[in-house]
Each structure stands twice: as C-alpha cells, then as structure tokens.
Amino acid sequence: MFHLKRNVPSWERAVRLCLGVFAALGAFYLLPAGTLRMLGLAVAGMLAATAIVGFCPACAMLGRKAAGQAR
Prior knowledge:
- The chain is mainly α and 71 residues long.
- Helix content is 63%, strand content 0%.
- It has three helices and no strands.
- It has helices at residues 10-30, 35-53, 57-61.
- The radius of gyration is 14 Å and the shape is elongated.
C-alpha cells in the first residue's frame, strides 16, 4: 500500500481545507468560464487534497516535517 508520512500539522490542514473551499467557490462564481476557472479549481483541489491526505509534496521537497516529528 502507498503510504506517505504526514508533513502538514493538523492546524494547517484545517486552514488548507478552508482555503480550498473558498478558492473553489471564488473560482466558480467570480472567474469567467474557461481556462482561468479551471486553473482556479485545480488550485483549490490541490489545497483540499493536501489537507485531506496530510502530505504536501512541495513541503517534502524542502525537507519540512510536521511539528512533533523527530528531525
């Protein structure tokens, strides 16, 4: 089974999920239909996905670990 160590703390996961929901609503209602809306929805989806999974590939590339993990 594919397993990734969580590198996003719980408080940040909640913030990312809220931002993902707001970004999706903003993209859907405020952006014109087309490429720009799809890009906004993709960004919102990535924020929500990293919040749900608890793993952020960009943070992993920078060597970031969640608080409480041994360095």
